[in-house]
Amino acid sequence: MERTALQETEILPQGDRLPANHPPAFHGPISGPGVWRGSDLQNTDEWKYVLSSAEKKDLLKATAKAAAEFENIQDIKKSDFELPILGEIIKKLKREIIHGRGFVLLRGLPLEKLSFADIATMYWGIGTHIGSARSQNTRGHLLGHVIDLGSSFENKSERGYLTNRHLKYHCDSVDIVGLLCLRHAKQGGASSIVSSYTIHNEMWKQRPDLARTLYGPVARDRRDEIPPGKGPWYELPVFNHFKGRLAINFLRTHIDMSQRHPDALRMSDQMVEALDLLYDLANDPAFQLTMEFEPGDMQLLHNHQILHDRTAYKDWDDQNRKRYLLRLWLSPPDGIELPMAFAGRYNSVDLGDRGGVTIPGMQTSVPLKPV
Predict the structure, then answer these.
(1) Three-state DSSP class for 116?
(2) How far apart are CA 364 and CA 367, in angstroms?
């Protein structure tokens, strides 16, 4: 008999089934600062933080010191990147990311006269004040280069950030994602975010039956990024309520790809309808907040409560003007607790040491070129 998303799970060796002790559904809407509508925030500046001249000097001083002392950026720790002025601000911003709206836009990083290596050092240094960097691909890259390399996302192992195509609403496989804009596109490439908490609440209002469905197991494909001792798929609900916090994880591509494995959980019609409704709500303009990045902008998102989207873009012909962002995946030591099911993708649920991509034999590095 075909197994559906709401039936009991069983242990099979081919993949990671949902743990039997996974927490039950939280019935009804939630409240708090993480519940917001983009239409209420779009024309405000309350989600932006613009660096002062003193804070810029603080950053430049820390960058110069770290660049002089360390040949390998990966060796730089928080204690090596002292920010006596900006450090306290970053603490407050991190609280807003994890316990508030779920995102911030830090504006005005002083990049103008820095070499690429110094920019990477500055960005890495800020990251050390937020959490530990996690690998973003099977090559162990701790610093991601978001630029169009002409790759095809039709390849199941290809990464969408290396193309100029539209990236639909999703969340990344780490607690916090940071994007630093070096250059913007000729046209398009806007970042759009929505509160997945708001979508959760809207689903409970419109279709509580479908909201309950998303608290049930759903198979995910690892897209050939398979950790040691794991199978090619795992199970993780979209909605997860654990120890007083909601953690939402939505990667529709990974969910749909799971169906290529004959032993993975089959998606019921109700699950498909629930996933479709979630995506439709994310694309409601009333829920969306759109950001046009400028050089020196740094966006930080809490993946457990924010979905993000990027529009397709047209780039400049000049290679030196092409849209270019740097990305960090960060695991904060003071993040929210997650149920064991997240270990299916995060490899662990240990605070400060979870998320990212891990495969056998992988060595981590901080590349200074998009390779």
Answers:
(1) helix
(2) 9
